[in-house]
């Protein structure tokens, strides 16, 4: 949950395990540090029996249950699969204690703009995250209900203590006749899922970069102010979008 240290890019790898999909299970995704030791960080899996897409994120690759102590966060989508909210492992506001200290924190929102039919260009993403205080810690945002979350605040342009990021627009390349982004060697396969997230004030500072390197392997590199859970959940949202990925 700690933000990346300033000036350090945390380089990770996401792998997708499709074993068991024939038995009706969803794939499991794993996040490891992309270094010699390949340290395991997080695992995520889509929950079955959920009306909207709902992913659980766990610190134990063998325990992806909602009730275990390893549950650290979740990602849920709207019915269309175009907007996502990321929460930590706190409780629903309906089960709040007296001082609300147990209520879940919202860590991020992701908005995909549906591409116009027939237009195969890159999809537009917006990412909204809590701002940072003067000690470089995340400002805690505990929505009191669904109308108080990051998506609604963003929609109503109530952006106090929020940071709005978006994907960097790829540039058309005449030689390859395709849209391209420079991933500096970290991404080797073309995919509509490849993206870089930036702030409009500084489009050269890549806050988050995600892209395919093999059929079921992706690199995920993130910088301050994101933490691993935010970065992983944003990447998970990109696997999902029904309309968003055409």
TrEMBL record:
Belongs to the TUB family. Keywords: Cytoplasm. Residues 2-240 form the Tubby C-terminal domain. Transmembrane segments: none annotated. InterPro entries: Tubby-like_C, Tubby_C, Tubby_C_CS. The keyword Cell membrane does not apply. PROSITE patterns: TUB_1 (PS01200), TUB_2 (PS01201). GO terms for molecular function: actin filament binding. Gene3D superfamilies: Tubby Protein, Chain A. It is found in: Cytoplasm. One of its GO terms (cellular component) is cilium. It holds the Pfam family Tub. It comes from Phrynocephalus forsythii. This is Tubby-like protein. Its main location: cytoplasm. GO terms for biological process: protein localization to cilium. The keyword Transmembrane helix does not apply. The lineage of its organism: Eukaryota, Metazoa, Chordata, Craniata, Vertebrata.
């Amino acid at each position: 949950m700690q933000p990346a240290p300033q000036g350090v890019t945390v380089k990770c790898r996401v792998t997708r395990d499709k074993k068991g999909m024939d038995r009706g299970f969803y794939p499991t995704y794993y996040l490891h540090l992309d270094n010699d030791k390949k340290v395991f960080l997080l695992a995520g899996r889509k929950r079955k029996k959920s009306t909207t897409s709902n992913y659980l994120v766990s610190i134990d690759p063998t325990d992806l249950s909602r009730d275990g102590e390893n549950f650290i966060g979740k990602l849920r989508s709207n019915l269309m699969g175009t907007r996502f909210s990321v929460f930590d492992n706190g409780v629903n506001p309906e089960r709040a204690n007296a001082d609300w200290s147990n209520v879940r924190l919202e860590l991020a929102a992701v908005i995909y703009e549906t591409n116009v039919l027939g237009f195969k260009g890159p999809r537009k993403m917006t990412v909204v995250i809590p701002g940072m205080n003067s000690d470089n810690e995340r400002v805690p945002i505990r929505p009191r209900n669904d109308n108080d979350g990051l998506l609604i605040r963003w929609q109503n342009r109530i952006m106090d203590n929020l940071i709005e990021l978006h994907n960097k627009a790829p540039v058309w390349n005449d030689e390859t006749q395709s849209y391209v982004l420079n991933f500096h060697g970290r991404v080797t396969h073309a995919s509509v899922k490849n993206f870089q997230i930036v702030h409009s004030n500084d489009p050269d500072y890549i806050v988050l970069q995600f892209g395919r390197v093999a059929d079921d392997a992706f690199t995920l590199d993130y910088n301050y102010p994101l933490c691993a859970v935010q970065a992983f959940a944003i990447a998970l949202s990109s696997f999902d979008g029904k309309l968003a990925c055409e």
